[in-house]
Amino acid sequence: MLKAGIAVPSKDKLSALIDALIGAAKAGELDGLMEASGKPVGAPKAKKAA
Q: Whole-angstrom Cα distance, residue 1 to residue 12?
């Protein structure tokens, strides 16, 4: 199974990477990637009781 990931060269650069990802998400720059993945985006729907 293939899992997506992000490589960070060092722990020192992790904070800047997270900030860049948050900025990209807020600007809508990741929308195309999410649509292309074919997976639903957002909160999961509540499960019905059995």
A: 30
CA gyration radius, the chain = 15
State the SS3 of 1-19: CCCCCCCCCCHHHHHHHHH
Q: Which residues contact 40 (CB under 8 A, 6 or more apart)?
A: none
pLDDT of residue 47: 75
pTM for this prediction: 0.58
Helix (H, G, I), strand (E, B) or coil at 46: coil
- Give the residue, 18 or 43, on which the prediction is more confident: 18
